[in-house]
Amino acid sequence: MREVDGLIFVFPGNPALAETRAPTRLGSAARRDYKTRRLNREVACHYTFMHENLFDMNHQFMHRKQMGSIRASCLGRQYGEHWAQVEYTFSRTAGSGTVGERVIVDLMRKRGEAKKEFRDHMRIRTDYPSQSLKVWVGRDIQESQDPVLDVWLCYTPLDAEQRTNRTFGFLSVKKPSIPGLIHLAWPFVVWFTENIFREDKEIVEFEQRAHDAQGADWNNEVFPAVRDLRGVLARCGQPITT
Description:
By secondary structure, the protein is α+β, with helices and mostly antiparallel strands. 30% of the residues lie in helices and 30% in strands. The chain has helices at residues 18-21, 47-55, 64-67, 99-106, 181-214, 224-236; strands spanning 2-4, 7-9, 34-43, 69-79, 83-94, 121-127, 130-136, 149-157, 165-174. α4 (99-106) crosses α5 (181-214).
């Protein structure tokens, strides 16, 4: 058992592997230059639906009420035995984002620089069993550059059939240089992210009900990044034994 950034981790596998599998930090939750909200909610679906939903940004049309019409472009993908990663950039094709979305991204843009000059960058990564999402403002990112948005998530099954999970995590937003501004804008961030989470919850729970009604997975997945992810989940995941 180990405490990391306020969460208690219990490793149920081979005790000899416990130290190597324990996380060292959970996104940017412990950093003072970020403002963080804790995530804790129950979702009625298998945890793999959660991984796939976040990984595949082609579903952004489901959030067009919150974000306008967004086109996601995949920049690349990588994967290994226990991890998979995909990177995106986005362009708005219609509508406009909400105040919450603009707070997260626009506060970190340099003064006087036009939004159209930027190709903001998102990286989503599953390091089994956890998942992360990071967003950088700008076209060319460096590994040492802090993301404007840093999300860490983990999905814990709640029942033997694994039809429900508890989603734990942290959503961290980089504080702008103006002191106190993030606190004034925070209610808009909470409002925006809660709406996104609510819509995602509806999506994955519909997917679970469709799977159960069919009695199998009938999805013919063609997106290579999600196929990579499915390989990781199949290799690493195990059914709960009683």
